[in-house]
Specification:
The protein has 2 helices and 10 strands; from the N terminus they run H-E-E-E-E-E-E-H-E-E-E-E. The protein is mainly beta.
């Protein structure tokens, strides 16, 4: 079947038609990160999902850095895993990898879709247990906080001798987007 409508009357697919919303990842801190320089490291984090790539600032000479920095991903396909990689910033050579972790947001998205209404702050909606299939260092709680669904994750870094990264997820609805 051929389309007889003019290009201006046919619906174009824009980013907003496919966009479900935004995921705010608060990178809270690193714990016991690997030493890659003489006595310390200059860590920063790169977060990737699909073609999106975001980066925190570098924290000098600290294996227990506190970023408290928000990175925001546009979510089109919530089944894509999110990869977090920690690097040591080097001025005169290639930055060294300090481990990585991967996590998915399927359980978090399912909790958002429950449309829970108002709950007391701190009410736990769901929990994700650490397993061989995820990088969780401990049980992860999805809970209600100040009118929002939030998930705290403590990720154990892979491909490195030590280190964990603590992050928090929060959803941002976008007017005009496809939504959940």
């Amino acid at each position: 079947m051929t389309s007889t409508g003019s290009p201006s009357t046919e619906k174009s697919t824009s980013l907003m038609d496919n966009l479900m919303g935004l995921l705010r990842i608060r990178v809270i801190r690193g714990v016991n990160l690997a030493v890659r320089d003489v006595r310390s490291s200059d860590p920063y984090i790169v977060v990737k999902m699909g073609r999106q790539k975001l980066k925190t600032r570098v924290i000098k000479k600290d294996v227990n850095p506190e970023w408290n920095e928000d990175l925001t991903l546009s979510i089109i396909d919530p089944s894509l895993p999110i990869k977090l990689t920690v690097y040591d910033h080097d001025t005169f050579s290639k930055d060294d990898k300090m481990g990585d972790a991967e996590f998915d947001i399927k359980t978090y998205i399912e909790s958002l879709k429950m449309n829970l209404g108002e709950l007391p702050t701190g009410t736990i909606i769901s929990k994700v247990q650490p397993s061989r299939n995820n990088c969780l260092a401990e049980k992860s709680a999805i809970y209600w906080k100040d009118g929002k669904v939030v998930q705290d994750l403590c990720l154990r870094l892979r491909n490195v001798e030590c280190g964990e990264v603590e992050i928090q997820l929060q959803w941002i609805d976008l007017p005009g987007s496809k939504g959940l």
